[in-house]
Amino acid sequence: MGSVEEPEKPISLYDSSSSPTRPLLSKHPFPSSSPPPPPLLDEKPIEPEPDPTQFLQISYNYGPRPFKDLPFLLLFLLFVLSTFAFGIFSIFHSNTYYYDLSSFSYDSNSTSCIESSLSETHPNWFRLYSFLSSSILESLIWSLVVTFILSIPICLLLLLLLKHYTKQIVYASLPFFIVIPIFLNVYWFVACTVSSSCSDAFPLAYRILVLVFVFLVIGVIVWIFVVHWHRIELTVSIIGVASDALWNNLGLVWVLPCLTLGLVVYYVPIVVFLVFARQNGKIVPRETSGEYTCVWKQDGWVPAYYALAILAMFWSAAVMVEVQVYVISGTVSQWYFSKEDETPRRSIRSSLRNAFGPSLGTICLSGLLIGVVRVVRATVDTARQEDVPGIVNLILRCCANVFLSAIDFLNKFTINFVAITGETYCTSARMTYELLKRNLLSAVFVETISTRLLAGIVFVLSAIYAIVVCAILKAVSHLKAEAYYVAALAWVLLIVVLSFFVHVLENVIDTVYVCYAMDRDSGDVCKREVHEVYVQLPISRNHRQSLAPTLVV
């Protein structure tokens, strides 16, 4: 509220101060009836600023939304349809002799490859069966299945605890951020020293080097928390608000994994197409050192199809990530702007309808940008690891980093704003930046400590779970060192599931942040508990200098 009124105060102050100065300058010719009104009328057109006033009533757009960014939707559909069309063609055009290459030999009479005899090479089903029936694989399968089933109630229990006991959970987890890595580091070192096979394969000097390195990493973690200790209390409140918002929209916990499952189902035929695309070709003779052998020669269009299919899969994955962000933002924003005694109905359904309807083109554009950023970042990281010398390479890397930073700055909060208003991508990026700038809020991040704290909590829970799994396997099975590998895989699976939960919670934090900025811009208070927390966020560093003259005036 104050941010909307303060820019008008200097204008009125200057207007009122300018009216006395003109009579003073023209006091001798006409004392009181000279032209003060005309100058005021002349200055009036300078006063209105359409950009700030046009965003004063930003809220969730419940009405019908027109389709936006259609060219990018059409381009995405062209990629997908081309992938499926050429994939179906590859199935019907495949060569069944692809897997019988070993049974072909060169015939000098016909100067071609002919099938000489049936090959006797068959898969070793007995070896496969013995592997599948081994106790190691059986324990692994049961551990992963039980872990995946238990991960759902673990996520719900963690969300409930974060909603009601955020402070207790965070402060109780902080010591384990240090204790568990120290325990695992010392336990590994002692176990490897006691075991003769491990000590022979891993000399003492290397063991000590790894031990010291892990302790240095633990020291860095301690230093990070000491430096940011003053922000932990605010972070705890932000996590509590986000957990409450997610708990009030619990349907997202089921819808988002279903979207991921839908992406996997969508990938299945493309993978099948890629398998059959390899079979498009023919067996031809090739001369090597005066001898002819039969080799497989792919059709010329197969590499191009591989590139097309991989790009389509990569773009589809980025689009699905943006769809999930869109659905989270649309659902949470409807909850935020609803009245206290009302619960929004069919909010998830309307968000899904808008995501796969009017805003799908915008989502495709955002996914394309994310895909380009990841490819460029991977290329830059590869070039940095290769350490190619030269000033040109250094300049290109600097330009790429500037480009990536600009895209990250542009894309942050944009899809959140699109889900709320239904605007185009470029319009939403500009409006989001201006909205946050007017209210002296950061357009880059909300609170980075919350991500680290949530990641630490996930690590603690998954590590405790892995220790329990390892103890159970040691007690009920005949596994020895294999129990550690099974427990490690169960730990990885639980981390993946809990990381997805953290990803959802981070998007909720961003959405509430944008909704709070809209509230602050229009002078409303839709969720008082949110304002009590987010008002404690520091003022953006980019706008502190512009705030100082206003305070002086």
Describe the structure in your own words.
Keywords: Membrane, Transmembrane, Transmembrane helix. This protein has 553 residues and is mainly alpha-helical. It has 22 helices and 4 strands. The chain has helices spanning 2-5, 8-25, 37-43, 50-54, 70-92, 125-132, 135-164, 166-194, 196-201, 204-227, 232-247, 252-277, 302-337, 347-355, 360-386, 391-411, 414-421, 425-438, 448-476, 482-522, 528-534, 544-552; strands at 104-107, 112-115, 281-288, 291-298. It is globular and about 90 Å long.
- Counting H and I runs of at least 4 residues, what is the number of helices? 22
| Biggest sheet statistics | 2 strands, antiparallel
**Helical amount among residues, as a percent range?**
over 70%
Radius of gyration from the alpha-carbon trace, in angstroms: 32 Å
User: Low-confidence spans: pLDDT under 50, at least 5 residues?
Assistant: 1-36, 39-45, 47-56, 118-133, 543-553
Main location: membrane
Subcellular location: Cell membrane; Membrane
Keywords: Membrane, Transmembrane, Transmembrane helix
Transmembrane segments: 72-92, 140-162, 169-188, 208-229, 250-276, 305-329, 355-376, 453-476, 483-505
